[in-house]
Structure formats: C-alpha cells, structure tokens
Amino acid sequence: MAEVSVFEAYQVQRALRGHLADGDAMQTLARDDATGVFWVLTERELILVENLQVGDRLTRDELAGEVDATDVGVTVRLRTTDGPKALVGTFRKPNRLTNALAELFEANPR
What we know:
By secondary structure, this protein is α+β, with helices and mostly antiparallel strands.
C-alpha cells in the first residue's frame, strides 16, 4: 500500500474499530494530498478519517461521481444519489482507492 505508510494504515484501522458493521472490513485507503484526510473504502462504504476521527460515511449504494486523472494528479468528485452532499479528493497519482472508485462509478452510473 504505497499511498500510506504501514503505521498510518494501522492508526486508521484502530480509529475504525467499533465503527464498522459486522463482516465489513477495510479494503484500501489513501490520503487526500490537499487535506490530509484518509479516504477508506470498505466492502460496504466509503469513510473519511480526519485526525484519527471517523468523519463522513457514505454507503457504496449512495455513491456517484467521477474520477479525473491528469498529468498533475487525480481528482475524485463524489456526490450522494439522494441528497446535496458532495466530496472532493485530490491525490498525486492514481492509486488503489481511486481505481476502485472509478470502477464503482463505471459499474453504477447515475
């Protein structure tokens, strides 16, 4: 997991203890290079972790958006399918998280 260090991944995993549904598990994570917030994709949802505190949570069913990769970096724009919530993430290069979100958006266009 080149996007974050092993220590950071461990800290995020500890922050998520007790916050995931039974049977849910972290699949991948990356740190937003603009804000420092960790974006965690689990089997059931996307969770933002800031300062080792669980923040915004969106189920995979709620997610719609786009992943835009350029020479400068990767921008992820998310919006919920049923409301006004919108999130933007900026990453230096494509990573497992941005690739997984791109596949999810292609599989579930809205």
